[in-house]
Amino acid sequence: MEIPATRLPTPHIQSPLPGPQAEAWLEREHAWVSQNYVKDYPLVVDRGEGMTLTDVDGNRFLDFAAGIAVCATGHCHPRVVDAICQQAERLLHLCAIDFSYPQVVDLAERLARLAPGLGSKKVYFANSGAEAIETAIKLARLRTGRQKVVAFFGAFHGRTMGAVSLTASKAVQRRGYGPLLPEVHHTHYATCYRCPVGREPRTCELECLELLEKTLFASTAPPEEIAAIVVEPDLGEGGYFPPKQGFLERLAILAREYGILLVADEVQTGFGRTGKLFACEHFGLEPDILVLGKGIASGMPLSAVVAKAEVMQWRSGGHGSTFGGNPVCCEAAMATLDLLEEGLTDNAAEIGGYLMLELKRLMSRHEQIGDVRGLGLMQAVDLVKDSTTRQPDHDLLAEVLLRAFERGLVLLGCGDSSLRIAPPLIVGQSEVDRAVSILDEVLTSLRPRGC
Ligand SMILES: Cc1ncc(COP(=O)(O)O)c(C=O)c1O
User: Fold this and answer.
1) Does residue 245 surpass a pLDDT of 90?
2) For residue 451, is it within any domain?
3) 293 lines ligand 1 (CB under 6 A)
4) Which atom of ligand 1 lies closest to the CA of 133?
5) What is the CATH number of the domain that holds 313?
6) What does 243-275 look like in DSSP terms, one character per residue?
7) Measured from the CB, is residue 236 less than 6 Å from ligand 1?
8) Residues of the domain holding 273
């Protein structure tokens, strides 16, 4: 009988990387698959179990990326797989816009009850984060009769035409696709770490809000024309920057004052990742529209928009999706929710705290680390040219990702030059220790001579 990878020592590298099987697959991938993304390293995965990825050559990797913060319950959690298999035998698809089935109702009720804020809510299901963002834009315009939408520099909301119009993380994500959605305005996101306006942490959230109110509202985007402000309660792809305390709270007050709908994009932060079920809970934020995706169904394609009942009002036939709320995905989401409620969200908070301490210790040993920050299991390690100027070091990021991979640790980047640390929420202390010690080795091997 095959021993499960979760019981074998990981990482374990037994072939050159890429191995012969991986090399053959990569060659075929290059020939047949759209090359729209440059991958950081040549990993070709055969299977995933818990925290372990096994490649096609039998090498085992420790996964600290979770399929970009998606595989919340680890790879192929038996309870999630069980829920998927059982549902797959009963009903694969029906189309929730034309017919009814229990899974959509059950999941909608659970999400509506759990979402921040009192008052009744309703849920719309889609397939991806971007599609859910499109839904939020359409809903906000429909409900307010206004056209303008405000988003933030550094934000990532997806790549469909509406969503990419809000995205302002990296120019390459927008370049060449214009004209994008009109009436989208960007403003500054207040974070303690790299305030784009005032460098004074005590006042930066006020300055960012002042820029919104006194510059944007007073010039190109009068507030009575704004349908929605769309905000990530912790900047994700833009660099894992939690907001300055007070910023989101004041933003919500401002939105309410002008009848603007506040949309919280929790596609990456949601479902336990930050140590609370929703990141909004860290800031007492009660959005009018909450957008969920990624980890909601542990890897199955599902996203959701949860809105106040008075906001979730459409013209009959005015919006829909063939696959949104697929019954198999809904069952995977309910199994995920069960696991989060049984302890995984608490684990994210507890192990997140431990991870932060260990990463800070790593920073004290390595000049190449300019900052460590984050919430729960959504943490960033900035790689910099030197710790005084903190200039981002893109080459160092690429090198660290590659060398970590060669030692069996799977990581991704985010922002300018940050390591994105987003393991499955099942991660334990021993895996954190292993990952940090690999990073320690890698950074030591890359230390400039004389240091
Ligand atoms: C905050 C946020 N919103 C939206 C999206 C888009 O999600 P998807 O790639 O599923 O369309 C992402 C994806 O990274 C995201 O991080």
Assistant:
1) no
2) no
3) yes
4) 4
5) 3.40.640.10
6) PPTTHHHHHHHHHHHTTPEEEEE-TTTTTTTTS
7) yes
8) 80-339
